Model the fold of this input.
Amino acid sequence: MQRDDPQVLTEARLATESTNKRFGFTKHRFRTFAWSYAFLLTLLSRIWTVKDPGPADSELFAYIGREWIRGIIPYKQIWEDKPPGIFAVNALAAVFHKQFIALAAFEFVALFATILLIHRILSELQCASLAKWTAPFVAASILSIPYYTPGGNQTEIYILPFAACCIYSFLRATRNAALSPS
Done:
């Protein structure tokens, strides 16, 4: 059976409605709960960036960012092999009085933007409603595991929204190319 088959769509809709009735969920409540959970978990998971930054990369990036603000030139007077983007983020955070609080805010924005883009990617793929609205739960839970971003202020955190944006853009472009007449 194909996904566009009306019988399959009707059966899926009836199964979802019976589950929603059984657990008392409405679509609006579920969406609100999913995004609230994602927002709060992502926000709370940035606490270790403030309280316990990693001993190696995190503080080194912060140091190079602070020095860049003071006029020291990265790669010439201070050396680290990472690209300049991580130093620019840390330099921007160094403008604020509490650098690691600013970094935690930047991380929150990057991770929450990634979660939003994952939802848009699933919408673009025309996934089932349950999959689209479960995505904030799953994405926030995975992105908040300390094992993946120990100490915070990792280059991987800041790259995630750009990677998700590339995937979303690719999907949009291929869909538009398929729709345009040849």
Q: What stands out?
A: The two ends are 29 Å apart (CA to CA).
